[in-house]
Amino acid sequence: MYKNYVDTSADTFPLITLVGPPNSGKTTLFNYLSGKKLKTVNYPGSTVDYSVCRIQEKYNINANLLDSPGIISLIPGSPDEQVAVSSLYAHPKFGVPDIVITTIDASQLSRHLLLTKQLLESGFRVVVVLTMTDILKKKGLQVSASRLKAELNAPVFVVDGRTGEGIPQLMNKIGKLLKKDQLNTDRKISAITEKKDFLKFYGEIEKIENKVLVPDPDKKKIAKANRKLRILTDPSAKKDCYKIDSTTVKIDKYLLNKNWGLFFFFIIMSLTFSSIFWLAQPLMNLVDSFFGMMNVMFSGLLGTTWYSDLISNGLISGTGAVLVFVPQIAMLFLILGLLEDSGYLARGAMLVDKPLSRIGLNGKSFVPMLSGFACAIPAMMAARTIPNRKERLLTIFILPLMSCSARLPVYALLIAFIIPPENSFAGGVVLASIYLFGIISSILIAGLINKFRDKIIKAEDNSSFILELPAYRLPKMKVVVHNAFISTKLYLRKAGPIILAFSLIIWLLTYFPNYNPEIDAKDLSKVEYVKLQETERLSGSYAAMLGKFIQPVMEPIGMDWRVGVSLISAFAAREVFVSSLALIFKVTDDDDTHLQNSIISAMRNARVESSGEKLFTTATIAGLIVFFIFALQCISTIAVSRKETGGWRIPVLQVVIFTSLAFCMTFITVNGLRFIGIQ
Amino acid sequence: MRTAAELKFGEKVIINDVDTEHPSSRRIMEIGFTPGQEIELINISAFNDPMAFSVRGTIIALRRNEAHCIKIM
Questions:
Q1: Of A262, A461, A466, the CB nearest to B62
Q2: Fewest CB within 10 angstroms: A100, A229, A504, B45, which?
Q3: Which secondary structure element, helix H or strand E, spans residue A264, and what is its range?
Q4: Which residues pair with B55 in a beta bridge?
Q5: CB burial class (10 A; 0-12, 13-18, 19+) of residue A218?
Q6: B42·A110 Cβ contact <8 A
Q7: Do A249 and B26 touch (CB under 8 A)?
Q8: Angstrom distances, CA of residue A349 to CA of A254, A584, B30
Q9: The domain containing residue A78 runs over which residues?
Q10: How many Cβ atoms sit within 10 Å of the Cβ of residue A480?
């Protein structure tokens, strides 16, 4: 998600706060109660910020509901846990919660009871929700809700995360509780730090666990054992509860294998990135021919007037050039969603912990880095799960080097210039190599900064890697597809207006002031006349005037002012580069019904004005790809970097270092390729 | 005394003590590694680090140096 989900105007309503350990079904419960569809992910720490909204109307309760990042105890160990604990004690806007709902995974009873006990001892009004009772049932056990209620002296409800069973009863109780006044409103922090006291605390929890775990009645019927529920005194039965998922262990024998684990890791990662390209190709062709047709239709209909040019060039080509690549972006979200839901991410983090810790990062940097391929903004927020400040700041620092989805349209167009679109397999390989190049560069840069870290990033504390490896599960296709759809929609809503606005701005800059140049029309055919008119118009345009300033900077890297103007406009949003190329190089000259083909053939015909040599060659295209890998051209990323690092120091360094690096690397690429004979 | 970092695959042992000198020890106890609990080494990652243990019905990955503060019988 791009920002905090805060959807409420009235803060006079009572506040219900949801807290629970990671992976305890907290967000699933939030979705039921709010009617929203926030993403649930099979990775501990997938929620890094709180979200607030109203309880769904059907429950007839006027209250705000706050979902917070997962915590295992009230003593926070990382910034995301700090968010949860602070919002529990004193939320700046909503104050102290009237009711705290805490989720407990029934199959992880003793570990999850720790937080519940701490909450109760701190004086919160707690309602306990038991989730995932089906997993415990498979082990032949169940939790007696009535006994747990008596032990904790707090209401306990069993909720089925798949069907929503048990939620009406829960809400009924909450409605009643809200009508009563709270006895006291001061909250202390029950955080036992002494080891002796802590172990005593855990001992009490184990006593409760022994009392409330009972054999599952279904299993009992089969065994025809005792008719009455008995206390689980048999130690072997308790051992059943601590059995781990055997399928998960079997899969991990391969995926976490000491010798083969990294091999599988590279296979999974490269499949992820190359499949984006070839899976999206058929859909892209559809969108592409749609815009191509629209373009031909409108320019045919409206003739050679200024408004015809505005509509067919400014609007259709400008926005269509980017929209063609939306299927790829959707595919990226879909594949990342599948990975997240499977439970593999925690394994990935474990596999890369050792190498990443060598360069000052952490295994927990893996998930932010991976989500950086969708967008750097949620990725920088996901870095909150890294406990060590220095490692977190370094992760945030290199995140802009992960090629985000906004760069996909640019790469896809540039790749299509070198490799014909029919060969989508080769295109996929090139795309995967671009991603790999970005990753390797980020690792080199992280290592380099780590060497001088005392000068750049000032922080020092204990480096740690403690991570729960959740059981594997088959990704829920329906949920994953839905989430990919929502993310794509959000992407369009966010980037769409910027792309449209900049298409118009660039159209204006390239059309005026010399919109009707005087040309000697003698001996010229109609087509030649229009073409010459367009060339004259562009060379006398505002864009060209602006371009003269950039020309000296662009020449060393083999580009001219037209590419320069496109690169500058890409600072509004990287995709605008594609619209800008489409506009400046006038793609409507031919009748090709495929927009992408038109852009590419226009690019092939483009020549450097001073020398008459071809502007776009393998060397300059490779140079442009390199530029986009390094350059930090995203204002929102800079803003989030400032917020997450708590100052301007890191974002300013990022802009300066990455942009100058982009220029130098492009210079080296273009001239290096030319030196070895590749034009 | 042996530590969890020296466990062999498939060997089930009981935790004897957790060394509170290590800065990660509080989190290690909070996540479920307490004296008296049975643990088993499930996996060791590439490069021999981190290690994954089963404890209280779940699998937890820890760095080798963190596993060193879990003393076993």
A1: A466
A2: A229
A3: helix A261-302
A4: B39, B58
A5: exposed
A6: no
A7: no
A8: 16, 44, 21
A9: 6-241
A10: 21
Count how many domains chain A has: 2
CB pairs under 8 A between A and B: 113
pLDDT above 70: percentage of residues in chain A = 86
CB of A503 within 8 A of CB of A315? yes
State the average pLDDT over residues A648-652: 92
Give residue-wise pLDDT tens across range B17-54. Answer: 999 888 889 899 999 999 999 999 999 998 898 999 99
Residue A121 lies in a domain: yes
- Are the Cβ atoms of B30 and A108 closer than 8 angstroms? no
Name the pLDDT band for A83 (thresholds 50, 70, 90).
confident
Contacts of A250-254 spanning 24+ positions with Cβ under 8 A: A251/A472, A252/A347, A252/A469, A252/B42, A252/B43, A252/B52, A252/B59, A253/B43
pLDDT beyond 50 at A325: yes
Look at residue B17 in the predicted model and tell me its pLDDT: 92
Kindly report, residue by residue over A370-395, the tens digit of the pLDDT. 888 888 888 898 899 998 888 999 99
Coil, helix or strand at residue A479: helix
For residue A312, the one-letter residue type is S
Judge: A468–B24 Cβ closer than 8 Å, yes or no: no
Report CA torsion sign: A141, A144, A148, A151.
Answer: negative
Please indicate, yes or no, if residue A205 is contained in any of the structural domains: yes
**Domain assignment of residue A211, yes or no:** yes
In tens, the pLDDT along A115-166 reads: 999 999 888 899 999 998 888 888 888 888 999 999 999 999 999 988 889 9
Write out pLDDT tens, residues A538-597. Answer: 777 787 888 888 888 888 888 888 888 888 888 777 888 888 888 888 755 555 567 777
> A346 CB near a chain B CB, below 8 Å?
yes
Look up residue A562 and give its amino acid: R
Looking at the domain assignment, is residue A321 inside a domain?
A: no
Q: With CB atoms and an 8 Å threshold, state whether B30 touches A73.
A: yes
The CA-to-CA distance between both ends of chain A, in Å, stands at 43
Which among A216, A241, A266 is the end of a domain?
Answer: A241
Please indicate if any CB of chain B lies within 8 Å of the CB of A623.
no
Residue of A nearest to B64 (CA): A465
Q: Position of tokens 């996996």?
A: B43
Rounded Cα distance, A57 and A62, in Å: 8
A334 CB burial (10 A radius; 0-12, 13-18, 19+): buried
Looking at the predicted structure, is the pLDDT value of residue A421 above 90?
no
Domains defined along chain B, listed by start: 4-72 (2.30.30.90)
Among candidate residues A279, A414, A324, A325, the one with its CA nearest the CA of residue A594 = A324
Q: Are A199 and B35 inside 8 Å of each other by CB?
A: yes
pLDDT in tens, A497-547: 877 887 788 788 877 776 676 766 667 676 677 667 777 777 777 878 888
Enumerate the H helices of A303-325 as residue ranges: 306-309, 318-323
Q: What share of chain B is helix, strand, coil (3-state, %, to 5)?
A: 20, 40, 40
Last residue of a domain, one of A201, A225, A241: A241
